[in-house]
Task: inverse folding
């Protein structure tokens, strides 16, 4: 392998194995799978991805089946959560499922340890309670993989203290929340599960923030150039805070179904064919991540705004979620009803020359890599942001839930890589922002230039000797000298 370390000094590492706990959501699975691929390709390390029974969607199954042989997956046993309130937040469900899995996980990790040279356990952001299982199973190292950015990590590491120093609700604060190295975040834009302190999900997040300190190290899917001040602060070791390694951007390098040349043309492939027929940088890609859906009213305004903008668009459409903005289909990316039925009357017919609508799911990284894609209207899920930056596509920010609102603040006011859609979400405003980005009017040109700069830094970091590659090398080098 060219430049790969497994031909060099780490060849002896070929038998090392890592177990990774993936809490629900394609946005968690995709970067952890990428981490596993990098460990295999560069260090000869094999991995087992441990997934929750609650997330066995068709999209996830297809994705897991497409992974290289060095990466196995094991579905953990189902957990009974029927005692939880019907309106329990996603974060609560994931955290409870994780805690209740500790005994089964301990057995599974012990089993892996009998067969493999298990050098480390990695859990993602809602999975720190599983460190208990790893410790009981005798796994020598426990890492937290943080699939989002250094701003969100800084917030969670400070949360146990903020819980004491800010007694009221974040959304009622007059001043933005100021944290070391971070862009000031208005209270209403702070992480969604922290917005109502009476809810269980808030307490869970405080709990996770405290438990992150039990990790031997924290691996973060971000890179210095996009949040340089936060990186500078976290680089300095602090008592009680594990060392932080920015190892990103780890983005999806392979879309499920890519290799199946014999498969009939799918709507997913059709969108790439459609892009082939569009001029360079002329299309805005519109997508709200693996589970995001808009309320009906916003969906209609977005349709009319795209039409009004006069720009070409490729839109991954899902049925609306009118239960607030937290997506009901987080656990299953496949939309259940015909999503096109919710669009304004005549919209599909009127825009058929300039727009393409795809139900549920598109090969996002391929769309972003396509020469015809010139902008990305995104919910600011961190994977989507990284994919956009790696492909040099400037963003229009339309955050929905999780940490997306604070990502939008960081991207617009910190990195300068996006323009945010105004809160009112009216069609004229949407059209104006889309035009600004696509035509390069107003802030559009500056954002485009900044994204080009970040693209270069992101890709440089992943090269041999680059910052992300060296950070991961440093982590793996500790395993070879270890006791297992
Ligand atoms: N994704 C995709 N096709 C889609 C929607 C999403 O391939 O139609 C992928 C996308 O490329 C990204 C992930 O799903 O890797 C979504 O992760 P993100 O963090 O952006 O958002 P989340 O799904 O966690 O809200």
Result:
């Amino acid at each position: 392998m060219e430049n790969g370390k497994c031909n060099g000094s780490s060849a002896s590492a070929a038998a090392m194995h890592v177990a990774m706990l993936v809490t629900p959501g394609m946005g968690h699975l995709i970067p952890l799978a990428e981490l596993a691929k990098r460990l295999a390709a560069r260090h000869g390390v094999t991995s087992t991805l441990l997934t929750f029974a609650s997330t066995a969607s068709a999209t996830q199954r297809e994705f897991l089946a497409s992974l290289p042989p060095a990466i196995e997956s094991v579905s953990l046993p189902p957990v009974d959560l029927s005692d939880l309130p019907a309106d329990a937040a996603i974060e609560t469900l994931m955290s409870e499922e994780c805690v209740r899995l500790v005994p089964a996980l301990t057995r599974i990790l012990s089993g892996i340890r009998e067969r493999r040279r298990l050098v480390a356990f990695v859990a993602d952001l809602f999975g720190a309670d599983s460190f208990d299982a790893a410790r009981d199973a005798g796994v020598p190292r426990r890492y937290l993989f943080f699939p989002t950015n250094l701003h969100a990590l800084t917030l969670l590491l400070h949360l146990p203290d903020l819980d004491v120093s800010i007694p009221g609700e974040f959304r009622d604060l007059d001043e933005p929340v100021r944290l070391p190295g971070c862009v000031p975040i208005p209270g209403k834009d702070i992480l969604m599960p922290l917005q109502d302190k009476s809810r269980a999900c808030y307490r869970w997040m405080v709990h996770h923030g405290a438990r992150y300190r039990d990790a031997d190290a924290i691996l973060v899917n971000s890179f210095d150039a996009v949040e340089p001040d936060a990186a500078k602060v976290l680089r300095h070791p602090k008592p009680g805070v594990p060392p932080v390694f920015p190892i990103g951007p780890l983005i999806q390098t392979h879309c499920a179904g890519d290799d199946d040349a014999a498969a009939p043309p799918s709507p997913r492939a059709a969108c790439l064919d459609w892009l082939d027929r569009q001029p360079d940088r002329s299309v805005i890609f519109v997508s709200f991540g693996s589970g995001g859906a808009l309320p009906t009213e916003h969906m209609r305004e977005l349709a009319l705004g795209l039409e009004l903008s006069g720009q070409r668009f490729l839109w991954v459409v899902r049925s609306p979620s009118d239960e607030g903005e937290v997506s009901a289909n987080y656990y299953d990316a496949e939309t259940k009803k015909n999503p096109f039925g919710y669009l304004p009357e005549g919209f599909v017919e009127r825009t058929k020359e300039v727009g393409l609508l795809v139900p549920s799911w598109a090969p996002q990284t391929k769309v972003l890599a396509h020469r015809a894609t010139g902008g990305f209207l995104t919910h600011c899920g961190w994977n989507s942001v990284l994919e956009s930056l790696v492909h040099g596509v400037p963003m229009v920010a339309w955050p929905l839930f999780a940490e997306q609102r604070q990502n939008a603040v960081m991207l617009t006011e910190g990195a300068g890589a996006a323009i945010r859609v105004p809160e009112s979400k009216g069609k004229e405003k949407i059209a104006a922002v889309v035009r600004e980005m696509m035509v390069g009017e107003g802030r559009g040109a500056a954002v485009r230039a900044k994204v080009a700069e970040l693209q270069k830094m992101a890709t440089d970091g992943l090269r041999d000797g680059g910052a992300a590659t060296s950070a991961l090398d440093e982590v793996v080098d500790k395993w070879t000298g270890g006791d297992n």
About this structure: Residues 25-27, 30, 252, 287, 289-292, 316, 361-362, 364-365, 381-384, 387 surround uridine-5'-diphosphate (CB under 6 Å). The chain has 17 helices and 13 strands.
